[in-house]
Amino acid sequence: MPSPSGFTLVELLVVLVIGGLMLALVPPLFSKGATGVELRSAARELAAALRYARSRAINRHVESTVTVNVADKHYEISGRKGTRTLPRGADIKLDTARSQLRSESTGAFRFYPDGSSTGGQITLASGPLRYVVDISWLTGRVAIF
Prior knowledge:
The chain has 1 helix and 8 strands; from the N terminus they run αββββββββ. The chain is α+β, with helices and mostly antiparallel strands and about 140 residues long.
């Protein structure tokens, strides 16, 4: 029976054990969430880069490309300096026109001044999570599924 002035030693030990278990179990849950957030963010950034390339092609009346390197996990936009990185832990798959394959691990998506493109898909996956960035060949429209 608990004393009227406080808690027993057993009650304190039970609370400490429960607290320790919570601290041990919660961080893995957050790390899984961070992977999902990172993957979704990468898909959105990649879609934005593709939309930028399409917009650039239309506005400047020039062809514009986004080149993706699956092995090094980065991509670059024609007409802009530097490369952008993709998540290291992600599995990346390209589905692009054969004419746009640069090597086994590198492919491009080309946008034309009329807004159309070579089309294709970029899949970003990590475990059960999967985001597909789809580029329509007819309209050049970019969507994430």
